[in-house]
Amino acid sequence: MQQLTVALILLALASGVSAGLGCNHNNCQACTADPLCGWNGSACKSRILGGCRGDGGLINGLLLCNPYQCSTAPPVYNENFAKQLWQLQGAGKVATSDPGFAGCVNAADPSAKFIARINVTCGVPLPIDRCVTDLYVLPGSKTIAAISLGSEGTSQLVQVLGALTLSFLDLQTGAVIYWQTAFNSLWNGGLQSNLTALLQNSTYADYTFVSSGHSLGGAVSLLITKAVADKGWRGPDAIQTITFGQPRLGSVALQNSIYQKAPHHFRLKNARDAISSLPFQAAWIEHSKFPVYYPIGMNSTGLAAKIICQTNEDPACTTLFQVSDLGLNYHNTYFNIDNIETWHNTNCAY
Ligand SMILES: *[C@@H]1O[C@H](CO)[C@@H](O)[C@H](O)[C@H]1NC(C)=O
Ligand SMILES: *[C@@H]1O[C@H](CO)[C@@H](O)[C@H](O)[C@H]1NC(C)=O
Ligand SMILES: *[C@@H]1O[C@H](CO)[C@@H](O)[C@H](O)[C@H]1NC(C)=O
Ligand SMILES: *[C@@H]1O[C@H](CO)[C@@H](O)[C@H](O)[C@H]1NC(C)=O
Ligand SMILES: *[C@@H]1O[C@H](CO)[C@@H](O)[C@H](O)[C@H]1NC(C)=O
User: Where is the signal peptide (predicted)?
Assistant: First the structure.
């Protein structure tokens, strides 16, 4: 009896390993349905022997790495709308009393109505940073927009860079702890009550909710999308997320749970924007789809050269992290502006 059990176990192991080694599925769906196999971007491989996102992440070459997820067709990308949202990022860089604020908001949508600025303390490990989300009603595009800002000042940059390189995840949600903490602080610091009032107001029943953010704010904006979708305030067709220079958010399970309820997400990446290549690829962390990649920058030639990829970590839309790219020339200059920090001086004119 004991021998029989041992034999059965050996048989099961052998067939398991050979199935893993086999992995003869010729498409991503069938491949990912097989627990021992993973899609490497173009072929089905054993997850132990190469069925990983094979694009050079530090840790992603090891056991039980993430395979690529299967491609799905992206929704329609509206670049002009993305440019308007970027102008609202410019507005976020100054006090709401500054003439540049009104100038940038007016440039984005002359009929825009500013609702509220949620400006709270955040930061990990030290709660000494500011996290900011601005809320608008945009009649021009029939949207309610939440605009989450990138990091401000050196202390925040240092803490964010820590989060970007040591990507510890919140065990409950699967998001990088810094992003989750920032979201929690904003949500409990007024964002939830302001959004409840706006999104449940019948005047705006047919308005789409748009969550947009830059850098740290890009990751936070996806968590805002998730919260709005989880509340059921808007259905999948009436929620959009559009991010600029967004870092990796968190676990595969988290990405998938957001994608199920709010599939309209575009993640813009300006050429070699190093922040959007961080935190490093690893088995527990994944980027969000759909990447819109501008491989030669964002002047008029660059805009025409963009690539929209169909899955989270598509190699065609990924660049490897290089320290030399950490300068802000790509990260703060979406749509070819000089610098998001000072753009309000010209009323966010393109
Ligand atoms: C995936 O596997 C195929 C077939 O072995 C190989 O040609 C290709 O280079 C692999 N792709 C990656 C990204 O490793
Ligand atoms: C957020 O509040 C802090 C502290 O009051 C202030 O210094 C900072 O300028 C504010 N940020 C924005 C974007 O208004
Ligand atoms: C937004 O919240 C602030 C304080 O949390 C409140 O004063 C303001 O009235 C709210 N605005 C709306 C439109 O709900
Ligand atoms: C809904 O929005 C309209 C237009 O901004 C406003 O006049 C009205 O007071 C809001 N209703 C509620 C219940 O907040
Ligand atoms: C746009 O950027 C590309 C890549 O940097 C550069 O080669 C090209 O000369 C630029 N074109 C214009 C019109 O500025």
Answer: 1-19
